[in-house]
Amino acid sequence: MRYFAKGFLIGTLCICLLGLVWLFVFQPRLTTAEAQDLKAQFTTILEEDLSGDGPAGKEETQLDFEALQAKYPDVKGWLTIPGTVVDYPVLQSSAQDPEKYLRRNYDMKWRMAGSLFFQFDCTQDSRNLVIFGHNMNDGTMFAVLQKMADAAFREEHSEILLQTETGLREYTIVAVLKTDISKLSFNRTVFADDGDFLSFQKELLAQPLYHDPAFIPGADHRLLTLVTCSYEWDNARTVVVAVQVR
After folding, report:
1. Most exposed residue of 113, 170, 177, 233, measured as fewest CB within 10 angstroms of its CB?
2. Are 225 and 130 in contact (CB under 8 A)?
3. Residue 31: pLDDT above 60?
4. 141, 87 in Cβ contact below 8 A?
5. Are the CB atoms for 59 and 49 separated by under 8 Å?
């Protein structure tokens, strides 16, 4: 009986260990693989490049965002930070369930890494588009935001691309912050007027880990704010702010 109990305990521990490996190692990678499969499904080769006569023999491709959104209406964007693992759909739900995609993928399947998602009150016309994502231990999702405080890494990966139903938007990083919502309302999306928006921009640049000295607050700027968990204190967040350049 004693040997049976010992064997049962060892077996249970092994099952638990395998479960943890699946949860924390393979699940995040599964999310990234699913995102790439999804992108492949809705990527088309541009007609003028079907001959293979494109630059250096490379085919030009394009994400058919209209077809993607027709099948998955909650996919409101596709975010890419070239040269990093960030190449994911961006989901959005409602005020009634703002974190619907915190642990779900675009197909509503449970995933430890969840999805990138817009704050529920963002619109295509928002002066500040806010996107949340998990800081995964394996480096997937928004874990890369932690590295943006490093000058060399940031310089190499300062470009951010966001495709939406209105087309492709290009951004460049202008600030990196460690903060939390009680210290700074970095997730504001609605502003009373130009003056209010300018004050918000100045507040973002008040105490960052980094800010671009060439960036001067302006009422005509459109911002993209990427947010992930940080662990320096309770509720700490790493916040990367980018300005639209095209």
Report:
1. 233
2. yes
3. yes
4. no
5. yes
